[in-house]
From TrEMBL:
NCBIfam families tied to this protein: bacter_Pnkp
Record InterPro entries: Ap4A_hydrolase (IPR050126), Calcineurin-like_PHP (IPR004843), Metallo-depent_PP-like (IPR029052), MPP_PrpE-like (IPR041780), P-loop_NTPase (IPR027417), PNKP_bac (IPR024028), PNKP_ligase_dom (IPR032380)
Name of the featured protein: Polynucleotide kinase-phosphatase
GO cellular component, one term: cytoplasm
Pfam family of the protein (one): AAA_33
Ranges where the Polynucleotide kinase-phosphatase ligase domain occurs: 469-840
Domain Calcineurin-like phosphoesterase, residue spans: 182-376
Membrane-spanning parts: none
GO MF, one example: kinase activity
Keywords for this protein: Kinase, Transferase
Origin: domain of life: Bacteria
Length: 845
């Protein structure tokens, strides 16, 4: 049985005349979806598998589907005659476009057999002439397949060979996903043997020496393995010594290695090709001249055998000398290898005569960690989950390694400047630039998004919702470098069973009881505007200029205050945080608070005037006159009884409505009259507080209120134990009292805060709004029995689902912030919260 090897990720092109058995072969050797047959696509686009007129459309569709499969990294087989070189050319190009290997399998069956077979087929109506022509074309093709770019050509000579063939799938050479580490990835060594020995020692490896005392291997007692990131050779004092050790480690399985551009050039030189010996190759050749021919041959073999890049640890780690963009990882093509060795070069040179390298890592959004070298830099730093470990040892910098998965950098200093650099060492990307707004890309938020969250799995943002959020974000929101969090929406409880109410604490308690949560806290719901406060003593943390204290923004990311008021507000808040001892306690120089900003009219002043006051003025202006007129008519004996009663009720409702919104309006002058009621500490350096109980958060808030009672309002609260009837009754009584004099109501939350039980995440809070407050939401007459009856029919399921998704996205942005992740990652989650707000939900809920 003949084994035909086919790389895992390849485009397999079957070549053979009609009747040679291609479709039969494909059916037997490959899985159903893997084979794309031209006949099938003819059928798809024309309803006729034999329609020659449909050939153009069929191949266009076939190439499109094949392209999608290759993009996903799936082996794909093309079942068409493919006997003409121009037909194959576009398929080779398709494979290259997706950086997979093109493979040809030729089914070479005698003409006579094909003619006989086709004569017996009902699905083929063409004669021997066509087969003869195809056969001639095949004959002419056989010689040139290799030159056409097929990386492997299997020719099956005759019916028996085809029957006996067996496909053997091979992983690509770069596919080491099963190797899970731990690893120590080592940057460019450039012949610095002594520093390499020191670094290996620092990493815990024990050197093994040959009879001459030269290190030929290094073993780690815990079985760790080194990964050499390329450029072992050139420039430095002892390239042969470095190679002897590195080659020994690779041979014994104690190290992996990828080639650098310097190894690539060395191989060509050792193979006798003409290469320029600048950039340190001359030194290497001189040093190697003192070695044996066997050693030189081994170096050539070793350097030649290295695979451009490696994918390790189930795809979580990629190593390549010059790094690798996500689209190229785990693929094989000329441009993939070239990127891995030389990086993203433009063909231009800079002022030092060195090739210009594009900063691919700035745009890297892949989930795999990429470790690389190639560009000497001052310090190894993370840029979007990539790290360059070339810290210029040979130029007098240091030799660096990264412990993986620990993500810990270990370095040893260079013993001296071994090679004068043409260009001074510089940081990878200045930290300020890394955090710059410019490092956000519109692609990060355009189109459909999927955000992976720690608490709620993958959350999808629809394309049109993302577009809506982009509009709001770019028109109104503050600088994304300062927008670290947006608060979630909150659901009311199911509709109350009481005749005269829409909402009551009973249903909020019932919800939590059904979820198995019994320890609750009720918090007073201040009637203001939701506000997020970022307060910092370290503006650089948010890439802001010195003296910047932070920002107070709305739930859609708009600033509340003008710059001067903002600064004054935060100065006072900082003083309160200081005197409450909170900076000290949280060990942070910044913090993020979730709060309510009062009065409501501060943000909603225009809306109150234009919408509520207009309705109120019209109603209270007109209705008393109508009542008076109707009363006079009744007096005269006209029967207007019903209408009079209804109009009286409406007049009463109107004045209650005016009372309701007036209660929340107050004059403010600068900061005078403005109050902040914080209720949750969202984050500080190194920590989020979502799992600290609300008692802790409320205690912090109380301490702040004690420190500056004028600026900071306390949030009153009451703990509830659902197992204790008296406690429940007390909470209901408290809600009655809060709402009796027009208060907005309360929010019921699990005391433990973030709660995940059997069914998943529990609502972080349920708002229970008072009867008078709801008049602002549902309209002046909503309490009239016929209106209430209609309004009772409301469904909170969607609102709840939305609340949980927004809550999880908010937690995710905070987690990313405190983990020090790049801005685009934080912004992605923040942006998604805003996009969720485009979902069509009853706005009155
Ligand atoms: N056949 C056969 N013995 C084989 C292979 C094929 O008898 N070992 C027969 C099939 O049953 C079919 C005919 O030969 O009736 C053609 O085989 P098919 O696999 O369909 O050939 P293709 O190369 O796919 O032909 P076309 O280019 O016309 O699609
Ligand atoms: Mg066929």
């Amino acid at each position: 049985m003949a084994a035909l090897t086919v790389p895992d990720m390849s485009l397999v092109v079957l070549v053979g005349t009609s009747g040679s058995g291609k479709s039969t072969f494909a059916r037997e050797k490959f899985a159903p979806f893997e084979t794309l047959s031209s006949d099938f696509f003819r059928g798809l686009v024309s309803n006729d598998e034999n329609s020659q007129a449909a050939t153009g459309a069929a191949f266009e569709a076939l190439r499109f589907v094949a392209g999608q499969r290759l993009k996903a990294g799936l082996l794909t087989v093309i079942d068409a005659t493919n006997v003409r070189s121009e037909d194959r050319r576009s398929l080779v190009q398709l494979a290259r476009d997706h950086d997979v290997l093109p493979v040809a399998i030729v089914l070479d069956v005698p003409e006579r057999v094909c003619i006989e077979r086709n004569a017996a087929r009902s699905d083929r109506d063409f004669g021997a002439r066509v087969i003869k022509r195809q056969h001639d074309e095949l004959r002419r093709s056989m010689r040139s397949l290799g030159k056409e770019g097929f990386r492997r050509v299997h020719t099956l000579d005759g019916v028996d060979a085809i029957a006996a063939a067996e496909i053997v799938r091979e992983p690509l050479l770069n596919d080491l996903r099963h190797e899970t580490g731990p690893f120590d990835a080592i940057g460019d060594v450039h012949g610095c043997r002594s520093e390499l020995e020191a670094l290996l020692g620092e990493l815990g490896y024990v050197l093994q020496r040959d009879e001459l005392g030269r290190p030929v291997d290094a073993v780690h007692p815990e079985g760790r393995r080194a990964i050499f990131l390329g450029d072992l050779v050139d420039r430095g004092p002892d390239t042969p010594g470095v190679l002897r050790l590195a080659m020994g480690m690779v041979r014994s399985g104690h190290a992996l290695a990828v080639p650098g551009n310097h190894e690539a050039k060395l191989v060509r030189s050792l193979q006798g090709k003409r290469v320029q010996t600048s950039h340190g190759l001359a030194e290497t050749l001189t040093q190697l001249a003192a070695e044996t021919p066997e050693f030189r041959a081994e170096v050539e073999r070793f350097a030649h055998s290295l695979v451009g890049h490696l994918v390790l640890d189930e795809g979580r780690l990629v190593v390549a000398h010059a790094g690798l963009i996500e689209a190229y990882q785990g693929r094989a093509s000329g441009r993939v290898r070239s990127f891995a060795l030389y990086g993203d070069t433009t063909g231009e040179t800079d002022e030092y005569g060195l090739p210009v390298r594009l900063p691919w890592a700035d745009d890297y959004r892949g989930s795999a960690t990429v470790l690389y070298g190639h560009t000497p830099t001052l310090d190894a730093e993370w840029v979007n989950n990539t790290m360059c470990l070339d810290t210029g040892c040979v130029f007098g910098g240091k030799l660096s390694a990264l412990r993986y998965p620990e993500r810990e950098v270990v370095s040893v200093p260079a013993e001296q400047v071994w090679y004068e650099p043409v260009k001074p060492l510089a940081p990878v990307v200045p930290v300020a630039e890394q955090r710059a707004a410019g490092s956000l890309s519109i692609e990060d938020v355009l189109g459909k998004q999927v955000v992976e969250t720690g608490t709620h799995g993958r959350i999808t943002v629809r394309e049109d919702h993302a577009a809506g959020a982009l509009e709001v974000m770019s028109r109104w929101a503050i600088d994304p470098r300062h927008l670290m969090y947006l608060p979630p929406t909150m659901s009311p409880p199911a509709t109350s069973k009481r005749a005269d109410l829409l909402e009551h604490p009973d249903e909020a308690f019932a919800y939590y009881r059904s979820e198995g949560v019994t320890e609750l806290v009720c918090e007073e719901k201040h009637m203001g505007s939701r506000a997020v406060v970022l307060l910092t003593r370290n503006p650089a943390r948010f890439d802001a200029p010195a003296g910047w204290r932070g920002v107070v923004h709305t739930r859609t990311g708009r600033a509340f205050f003008d710059d001067a008021t903002n600064d004054e507000f935060l100065r006072r808040l900082d003083a309160a945080v200081e005197s409450a001892g909170l900076w000290q306690e949280l060990q942070s120089d910044w913090l993020l608070l979730d709060a309510e900003l009062l009065p409501w009219s501060l943000k909603a002043g225009d809306m109150i005037r234009d919408q509520y006051a207009a309705v109120g003025a019209a109603a209270t202006g007109a209705l008393p006159h109508a009542v008076a007129a109707l009363a006079a008519a009744a007096e005269r004996g006209v029967d207007v009884g019903d209408l009079l009663a209804r109009t009286r009720a409406r007049a009463d409702d109107a004045s209650l409505y005016v009372d309701a919104y007036r209660r929340y309006s107050a004059q403010t002058e600068g900061l005078a009259g403005v109050q902040l009621a914080p209720f949750q500490v969202l984050a500080a350096e190194g920590a989020t507080f979502a799992t600290r109980p609300h008692s802790w958060h409320l205690d912090v808030a109380a301490r702040l209120a004690a420190a500056d009672a004028e600026l900071i309002r306390q949030t009153r609260s009451l703990a509830v134990d659902l197992g204790d009837d008296a406690s429940v009754a007390a909470a209901i009584e408290w809600w009655d009292a809060l709402t009796a004099d027009g208060g907005e109501g309360m929010v019921v939350k699990p005391m433990a805060n973030l709660t995940r039980l059997g069914k998943g995440l529990v609502q972080p809070g349920v708002k229970v709004r008072g009867r008078e407050y709801l008049r602002i939401i549902y309209g002046p007459d909503y309490t009239e029995p016929e209106n209430l009856a209609r309004l009772r029919d409301r469904n909170v399921a969607h609102k709840r689902s939305l609340a949980l998704r927004e809550y999880s996205l908010g937690l995710e942005s905070l987690d990313r912030l405190v983990r020090g992740e790049p801005l685009w990652r934080i912004h992605q989650a923040v942006f998604a919260v805003l996009a969720m707000e485009s979902e069509p939900v009853d706005p009155r809920l």
